[in-house]
Design brief:
Pfam families: S4 (PF01479)
Organism: Tenuibacillus multivorans
Subunit structure: Associates with stalled 50S ribosomal subunits. Binds to RqcH, 23S rRNA and the P-site tRNA. Does not require RqcH for association with 50S subunits.
Strand order of the largest sheet: 2-1-3-4-5
Distance between the termini: 43 Å
Shape: globular
CATH superfamily: RNA-binding S4 domain
Helix content: 10-25%
Number of strands: 5
CATH architecture: Roll
CATH class: Alpha Beta
Order of helices and strands: HHEEEEE
GO molecular function, one term: tRNA binding
Radius of gyration: 13 Å
Largest sheet: 5 strands, antiparallel
CATH topology: Structural Genomics Hypothetical 15.5 Kd Protein In mrcA-pckA Intergenic Region, Chain A
Structural class: alpha+beta
Keywords: Protein biosynthesis, RNA-binding, rRNA-binding, Stress response, tRNA-binding
Number of domains: 1
Amino acid sequence: MRVDKFLKLSRLIKRRTVAKEVASQGRIELNGRPAKASTELEVGDELKIRFGQTRLTIRIEQLKEQVRKDDANTLYTVVKEEKIEQKQAD
């Protein structure tokens, strides 16, 4: 399953077009490497997503083509959620 589709189905990002934009901005990593929206995921992969000043690390638990809203959070496990320090210009 593609990264952008997974992010939409898991409800981590509401729209697939937004997921594509986030990926094109270099804010998504798959297993430590930059990921494109079209990168294929597998169960067990680790995905890091940067939302503003927060970096969310998740592990892919399931890949389903359809998922109910109430079951969306079963597709992944949050490994770590961390705040990113804002770099100040000198």
